[in-house]
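Q: Here's a chain of 237 amino acids. Please give me its 3D structure as tokens.
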Amino acid sequence: MNWFQSTPVWECGDKVVVITGASSGIGKALAQDLADQGAKLVLAARRQTELDALAAELPGETLVVLTDVSKEEDCQRLIEMTIQKFGRIDALVNNAGISQTTRFADEKSLDRYRAMMNVNYFGTLQCTFYALPYIQQSSGMIVAVSSMTGKLGVPTRTGYAASKHAIHGFLDSLRTELINTDVHILLACPGYVATDVRKVASGTDRDQINDAPDLMSAEECAAQIRRAMEEKRREIL
């Protein structure tokens, strides 16, 4: 026996897990990881072809729901379709997000800032709003895939950092409201991860991120998040 290996508090097997931004990057890798543990997955993103391809390769039951998390009606429909299919939600993973690589003084409009708040913050807010009653019923968990940028200020990421700070403020506050319940909240705050979000970040300084050293793979990041879910940790960096 390995006395230093922690015993999972929250078993992934047979759990119903909703993952936004599941078509690529951390979301896709987490779907693959959780599927290997026996979870039933609801895969949500804006790219139907990629979602269908992922669902086809995963073991176990899956549901694909085309979702733009910036639209409240899409978030509501995502949760409703999950309940229609599985009857419950054990975990919501708010992973969908967009980034940037532009210095604030170089911005020509605030359109990108509004887009980042709509996707990153309001996407998390809206999905959580509709999922929370079911998560309370199952004594489940809410996960947000955030970033170290949600804790620190980073050049060329002003809008991204603001949206991630908003997520932290929202979920830290929600955690206190739910302190007398069995609902668990996890904030995952990785550093640089090799994902499509990084590759397609809007702005003029993309090389600064693309050339960042010591990029973590999406698969390793996903494995760390899954372990943190199993151990019911509040935050991982």
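Q: Can you summarize the key feature?
A: Helices lie at 25-36, 48-57, 72-86, 111-138, 158-177, 196-199, 206-210, 218-230.
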